[in-house]
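Sharing in case it's useful to others searching the archive later.

Someone asked me privately for the predicted structure of GRF-type domain-containing protein, so I'm posting the question and my answer publicly. Question first, with the sequence:
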Amino acid sequence: MENSSVNSQMLDARICHCGQISVTRTSWTENNLGRRFRGCRFYGRPDACDYFSWMDPPPHPRYKTVINGLLRKANNNENREMKMQRTVKLHHIALGVFVLGVLIHKYVI
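And my answer, the predicted structure tokens:
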């Protein structure tokens, strides 16, 4: 079973214009969120070729709307959680300062 999986991956591999096996990447742009494509393994380097091929069909417009909405919600929740963590840290610091003040007042004064 393992061999057939490896063989199907090898058959599915594409050779880019550099003569190398292309690599599979995932798009994170708003218009192609999660859409897989193949490209030159040297992308971003001066010696890269311009090989590019979509693996997945274009997403349905509804899919784009739903995924982008979910990402915005996730970002908002993450921001809320970060604010909450910051507030908790500030409360811990304030409590520590208060306790330190009580101890100084009790033992020094």
